[in-house]
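hi! just following up on the protien thing from before. the input was this:
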Amino acid sequence: MQNNYPEGYFPPAIISFDSSLRPKWGYNVRNKYLETLSAGIDNKGNINLLLYYYGDTVVNFGAKSYRLSEKSALLLATENSTGSTGDLLTIAVPADSNSDLGQAQLYIDGQNNKFITGSFSGSIKFGKITLTASTHSLSSNLYISEGFIAKYDRNNTLIWVKTRISGGHYIARDIATDRSGNIYVFSNFDVKIYFKNDSIRSYGPLRATDPCLTKYSPTGEPVWTKVFGGIGDDYAYKMHLDALDNIYVSGGFSGGIKISDTTIYSGYRSLYLAKFDSSGQYKWLKPFYYQDSLGDIYGGNFNILSSNKILMSGIFTRDVQIDTVRLKLSSKPGDDTLRIPKANSFLALLDTGGKLIKATQLGGPGSVHVNDIASKGDKIYISGYFHDSIWIGSRNYRYAAKGSNMYIAQLCMNDFIGAISEVSPNTSLEGLKLYPNPAQSELQLSYTLSEAGRTHADTDHQQLRADGQ
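and the predicted 3d structure came back as:
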């Protein structure tokens, strides 16, 4: 896959890799002003993209062109496992000029039902159903945005759509279901939210942002909601459920964060990982921070492995403390005296009680980011980007090209080092989400080319070589 794009184009893309991390095919959705919000793969291997479209009236999807009557919409695109295009479905459109669709997330359950959550202001249409946001006034100039959940069957037919929660600048960040079909949404809000007949204020002062974890029944009826945070802005990032329907959530906090009777303070922007059971009972809170550092710690991607252990990642610009382990920003493995890089990343392996098992560091002469973590069976993958070269643990990997390079790596749990491949040099990239294909031994990587440039999947792909090999 190799394409040149004019300035102003932001094409979503999918690359499929085999079990050796070599690309098999690549596909770009060639359209101006088309953004990938989320993606998922069903148990037949079909790839589903949740897209936000705006600006044009014609969307080009593969060899097909779709003419839309609206100037913005949420779209659901389906491709089969070989990368050939399928259908493009308009699922939601603004119903008035004041509507704002915000962000939206997609989740596919074991029966290939699709759940979509997001937020909007004004009103929004799902087929013949029109939803209108609440008109509760938060103050003289602040108004409610509404959260929605929509359920589609395996044929992309709408089963139901409901609005169940609202708040100032409400943004849904993740969605999942448990073994019984209950639905969980992890979100951000500021000022207050309205849930059932109650209003719940954020922990901080007016306009402070807090996370919100909410459970719904299989039919979308509200069950419970948990709000937590501190005096500063606190954020929701990711959510996963384990095999026992325990809920793990990650996010960011600044100053301090309180969940139930646990309070943690930090000097600056930090990360947290928390566990709840399916009834909403709080279990534990794990911080990733350095109390005396003025640097940022952000990212917060994680996944639950087949062993039920949790692999957490983060990005830090000074130092990071994980239990008794302190990682220092470094340009070279084991050398914290040369503090040139803009950011390093960490990987932390935790048990189900939140106890640290091991931690390692990813760095280089420039910024090194871990953007996503995925697992399939006993295989563990990470994706992200680096500048010029990258080291993981004690091993340094070289790539001849200068600039920003995207990578995908398979990890070994013994020392966190496994195969690593460069897949896209000299480009500015966003997203970098990994999706193991349950129907075959392939791994799909979804990303967005965020500036004019070229993507190279099969033409320039290479295995990065470790120093001394």
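The longest strand covers residues 158-177.
The chain has no helices and 38 strands.
cheers
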